[in-house]
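Contributing new records

If you add data, match the layout below exactly. Sequence lines come first and carry their own label; structure lines follow with theirs. Keep one chain per record. Anything else will be rejected by the validation script.
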Amino acid sequence: MIEKENLGTFLKDNKKLIRDYLDTRLEIFKFKLIRIFSKSTGYLIWVIISLFLFSLLMNFIGLVIGFWLTKITGSYVEGFGYTSLIMLAVIILLALFRKALFINPIIRLMIRRSTENNHEMNPNK
């Protein structure tokens, strides 16, 4: 007598294959998470170091401009006061153009990176 095959008998017969498949999918998922986490950590460290170096650069540029303007004006207060106004103007300009300078390029970069990752994962597409 031929037994009618249904989902229950299929799962019972192929239990080991299904378990192996799920274990493999879980490992692939873990490796994807590890890759994403390691890339994100690398970018975060790079951003922190870059911001630190940028702040040092801005401090030294401010000092140079301050001493230069002090020499021109003959007063420390005026020289460093003008330097503070210049730095404030730069900060205001960066705040006004933050979307065009920072936000939109980062969004485009993230979209490009995510589509690159999808193409790496599925080379047939």
